[in-house]
Amino acid sequence: MAESDPKEPINEQGVVNMYNAMRTELNQIYSKTTELEMDASEHSLVINAIQPLDQSRRCYRMIGGVLVERTVKEVLPAVQRNKEGIEEVIARLNEAAEKKKREIADFEDKVQDQDKKV
């Protein structure tokens, strides 16, 4: 069994460890996705709050831990770009989660097939 695929577990404990590692990785992807979805939601709130304002109005933005003064005209596009970037990352994480779920399902099927042979 170990000769065909070096990643294949040799014993029952190895199977459990690999399965737990895959589940942990999937949970981490879900956690990061949730965190980024909250960030995107906050960006939407900011966009909705400043969009109707006068473009020359003073606006403050946190950049690298420093609060800087800008105008709505300068800040709004930057916040929109950040939100779009976050949404792209969320989409990639969702794809990674689907891939990981398929990998886990394949692993479960493989282990069940091996159990039936033994």
From TrEMBL:
GO molecular function: unfolded protein binding
Keyword terms, alphabetized: Chaperone, Coiled coil
Alphabetized Pfam families for the sequence: Prefoldin_2 (PF01920)
InterPro entries (UniProt xref): PFD2 (IPR027235), PFD_beta-like (IPR002777), Prefoldin (IPR009053)
Keyword tRNA processing (UniProt): no
Similarity field: Belongs to the prefoldin subunit beta family.
Protein name, UniProt field: PREFOLDIN SUBUNIT 2
Organism in which the protein naturally occurs: Salix purpurea
Lineage: Eukaryota, Viridiplantae, Streptophyta, Embryophyta, Tracheophyta
